[in-house]
Amino acid sequence: ITGHTEPYTKLCCKGFCIDILKKLSRTIKFSYDLYLVTNGKHGKMVRGVWNGMIGE
Questions:
Q1: Within a domain: residue 22?
Q2: Is residue 9 part of a domain?
Q3: Under 8 Å between Cβ of 29 and 14
């Protein structure tokens, strides 16, 4: 959590790849959203349909 007063910001991700993502987004001007999938899975094909992050 960042900051000492509201609004607080929750940070879910950090590290080298996130630093590169931030730099690229500033350099080539794009936005992104990072979030954790609710079931903690990245994707699995179930009955011919992908779920998780892949399915989105």
A1: yes
A2: no
A3: no
Give CA–CA dist 56/54, Å, rounded: 5
The span from the CA of 15 to the CA of 51, in Å, is: 26
Instruction: Give SS3 for 11.
Output: coil
| 9 secondary structure, DSSP code | B
DSSP string, the chain: -B-SSSSPB-----SHHHHHHHHHHHHTT--------TTS----EETTEE-HHHH-
Which tens digits make up the pLDDT trace of 10-43?
Answer: 667 889 999 999 999 999 999 988 877 777 777 8
Q: Alpha-carbon distance 25 to 18, whole Å?
A: 10
33 and 17 Cβ atoms separated by less than 8 Å: no
**By residue range, what is the domain housing residue 50?**
16-55
